[in-house]
Amino acid sequence: MQRRYKTADRVTSRDVCLEPKKFSLVAFENAEQPADEAGTVTHRTVAADTIARAMTHILLTNDDGIQAVGLRALRDAMEGLGTISIVAPSREQSGAAQSLTLRQPIVCHEVAEREWAIDGTPADCVIVALHRLLPEPPDIVISGINYGANLGENAYYSGTVGAAREAALHHIPAVAMSLCSKKSGVDFKPAARIARTAAELVLTEHLPDQVLLNINVPEPWKGGVRFTRQSKKITRNQLSEGKDPRGRLYFWLFEQRIDSDIAPDSDYHAIFAGDVSITPLHLDPTDDDAIHTLATWRDKIAKLDAVNRK
Question: Domain spans of the chain?
């Protein structure tokens, strides 16, 4: 199976202004051409840039389903940056985290050129794409744009973040994109522009291995962008109880906001201030401090086990 590259038909650039913990991104309306060392645009530099973009391969997925508006907005925003493949769930998989389908077959439907709908979870989609559908690993995986926030400890539940984690587990740069709104008819274009800029930066400046970016965009967005820490949970899970017509007990799970101090360097703080939150997440959750502080348990566990075996 050979990869078919599409020639990039437009080139965009971004002006990135960096400040500690915060930076602003300004998108130029008009495409700029690359220049040589003397600052002169040449046919050679233009051709090299075009070829590089044409050879870039971008895999898109999500947890809202292959027909989701956010995914389509993301697809449009990535146009011209490289070859785009979409492998996404055939139906909504919100809350699937990084779960896998193990007790039934994962059915794959080719719905368009370079687009597949998967009867499975977002993580399934990444695995099927990497191991069966794509001729070689993509240069970047972008999951989203999710219809709703993935902030704080709720990121552990997120199928959007779960797909990005699966990509990072395979040593592929990954970004999870979410729009912090549940309003009907909300505009995904600002979040899509942020996704485009983030993709360009990841492709050119690279991420540390097995680090993914969890990006949340407020609605409305005031123009600021912060690098943040993952917040503690500021909601609690609640259950609404009822009985169906056959008398069976059922529950609806929902969240309730609780009073909680929000750290100024956290993702929630950025979103409540109207800024984009970018949280780098590492796959290794090991607590290095606890390894040392709990080391004395080693001998105690071994000793107690020896006693219990007698």
Answer: 14-231+262-309
